[in-house]
Design goal:
Oligomer: single chain
Helix content: under 10%
Strand content: over 45%
Number of helices: 1
Distance between the termini: 38 Å
Radius of gyration: 14 Å
Length: 93
């Protein structure tokens, strides 16, 4: 069975550009910029993630960049979600 994964991105996604190996690629992401409290160290911080279709992220590596809403972020984590059809990119400004 082949699913149309774009259905999951229709209502909540925004445009982004991945810069990887000198090549730019336009993709759709669900961007999440939230505050977090790191209880173990008693500090507040931000968790910045972008969720995208795994198939759109072929060749993406740590330290590549993602650009969205005019801001550039460095990719510091690449985490497949459940069945691997979507991936969370952990980002830093």
């Amino acid at each position: 069975m082949t699913e149309d994964l774009d259905v999951f991105l229709t209502d909540f996604s925004q445009a982004a550009t991945i810069v990887s190996g000198g090549t730019n690629r336009d993709i759709q992401i669900i961007f999440d910029l939230e505050g977090t409290f790191l209880e173990s160290v008693g500090a507040e911080g931000r968790s910045i993630t972008a969720t995208a279709k795994t198939s759109d992220l072929n060749g993406v590596r740590h330290r590549d960049t993602l650009i969205t809403d005019g801001k550039t972020y460095q990719i510091i984590g690449i985490v497949p979600i459940m069945d691997g059809k979507f991936t969370d990119l952990q980002l830093k400004e």
